[in-house]
Amino acid sequence: MDDEKNLGPLRLLRRVLAARRGDVRAKVDLYHLRGVLTFVAIFAATIVLPGLLLAYYGVAGIRAQQRAGAAEVERVASGAGDNFQVGVDSLFKGFEDNTLNRLKSGQSVTSGLREISESLRVVFRYDAEGALRFPRSPDSEDALDDQELFFFAPWQAALRSERLHEFGRAAFFFGQAAREARAPDVKGQAIYARANAAHRAGEIFLAEQLYTEVLTGYAAVRDAYGFRLGDLARLKLGELRLGRDPVAGEAAVREHVDELLAEPWIIGRGGEAAVARRGIDLIAGRANAEWLGRARGRLEDRASQLFWAERLLPELETLGAKGRMLRVAPGEFSYSRTEHALWATTWTDEDQYVLGLDLEAVMAQLREIAQRSTSPQGDVIAVVRGPDDPEREPPLARRSLAPWFPNWSLGVYPRDAADLLRRQGEERQRGIGIILLSVAMITVGTVLSARLVQRELEVARDKSDFAANVSHELRSPITQIRLKAEALQLGLAPDAASRERHYDVIVREAERLSRLVDNVLDFAAIERGRKKYTFRPGDLGLSVARMVEAAMVAMETRGMDIQLTLPEDLPVVWHDTDAVSQVLTNLLSNAAKYGQESGWIKVDVALSGEEVLVAISDGGIGIAPEEQRQIFEQYYRSSDPLARRKKGTGIGLTIVKYIMEAHGGRVSVRSAPGSGSTFTLHFPLRPPGLNA
Ligand code: ADP
User: Fold this and answer.
1) For the chain, what is the mean pLDDT?
2) In order of start, what are the domains of the chain with their CATH numbers?
3) 64-88: per-residue pLDDT in tens?
4) DSSP, residue by residue, 470-495
5) Cα separation of 129 and 416, whole Å?
6) DSSP code for 633
7) Phi, psi (degrees; rounded to nearest 5) at 327
8) Which of 15, 268, 303, 647 has the fewest CB atoms inside 10 Å of its own CB, making it the most exposed?
């Protein structure tokens, strides 16, 4: 009738119909079922649904976070591109503004180039006709024929003497060369050389005379290195005068230097600059600082610009006729590029200025701006890319360098793409890990709670079974006793033998009734913790033998054989005789009930180490392994149909377990379905309450 612990859908339907018909049992089941459904609903609403929502939003969150991460890197890259562009714009704007400001205020743009731009190396100025006005070209200066000098015999002799440090002889041969020379250039050089030799030979007066002769007669002649003899002689005279009269000497040298620096700057004419430098060095210790600073600054400008002009002018000329570039409105700039220079040009009303920026220096500035436009530890780097540089990967952001460098660009790349990917992957895994862990915890929680609820439901069900079982168990002995007593009262048992049988039944059923009531009352007392025991040292074997003897008669009437094995001289065991007899009653009546078909029961008492064991065996239906622990739980009755056929309350073994625990011992079971069961009581030898 109640063999369905687990309700399948079909059974469920049958139950519902039965309940409708008024079946109480089915109603109770449905009541429990409603409880289960309510629990499931509450559980779904408060745990499963929030869990799923949590997981869903967690995953969505991770995705969003990743998108945001990628967007953030892109934003940083684009920011770096913008920074770079601002930097480059201000670099060129600064250059243009500085140039225009100078032009507008009438200042020179041909000196102090570094103040205009760090990379500016040379400025060319052309007039309206396109003629180069600054620096000047060497044009039609006569080149010196040094061949003539080199093979001139006295000149050779003089050089030889000079090498031997015979300066007097050298002066003599240079004098001879001067007299024999035909061309005035050669004559001038020979006189100058003679003056030097005389100077070195210590003939100061002669030297001064000869320098003066060079200065007056051959000042414009240039030597093989491009030096003007006049400049060289004047410098020598200044040097000699400095030794004699420092004030006058310094004034003379300074005047010479000033004149040199004021002269037009002619491409290829480095000699004047060298002479000026020598002059400045000569009086550096005496001249005033302001003059020195200005003179040196101008000299540097001049030397550097002439150097760069010489280098870059041929490149500029490849751009067009004499460096003419796009004509732009005054105040505007146009740019072109050659191999080593970036050219900027602008026009005033009458002149064109072409400003030559050193390409390498400009690139260095751009690279520096690129570097500054990203943070040093950031996720991106910025790289300036020329038209020939290979593209390493698609950039996160790109900025063009037009109009200055039409085919150039700035690319912003991940600093370490693999690392970036790895970091993003790790973050995602961490997120997913947390979500999975949460889901797993929810699942485990769900399973555990479901088990708990199932267990509670089973207990509730067992409890309701218990009430029904107890009433049932009470009714049959009472009915028996009443029937037999009434039969006796009405004289329905005529002979002594049948009366005897009636009395037997009345006694047996009364005993059964009192066992049941004892069990129920004891169980109630145990449950409330009110059960009291009186432990005394005594002969456990004797207590067992008495119980077996008492049971024997009842067993024999059922056709069952009971055997007792009892060893001699058992040690004394502390026990409560009443409690032990209840334990044995319960185990023997179970053995009789579930082992009736086999027809035998064995009771073995034995000493084993520190324990006395009492084993009650039967050859009956046995117990399934998975139930061997549950049968000791309160109200639990086996779900095996064979066992269910027998009447019972499910508290007998619970009482056994509690009583054994009170004795400081335990009860164990060994059983296999179909081949009987052995329940063993373990009594410790030490008095209960004393721990080992
Ligand atoms: P009950 O009143 O049902 O016998 P118990 O607590 O005494 O309650 O036993 C619990 C369950 O253990 C029984 O329902 C039965 O299924 C099983 N059981 C107990 N003793 C035996 C036995 N000797 N052989 C087989 N099954 C047993």
Assistant:
1) 86
2) 139-306 (1.25.40.10), 532-684 (3.30.565.10)
3) 888 887 888 888 889 989 999 999 9
4) HHHHHHHHHHHHHHHHHHHHTT---S
5) 57
6) S
7) -85, 120
8) 647
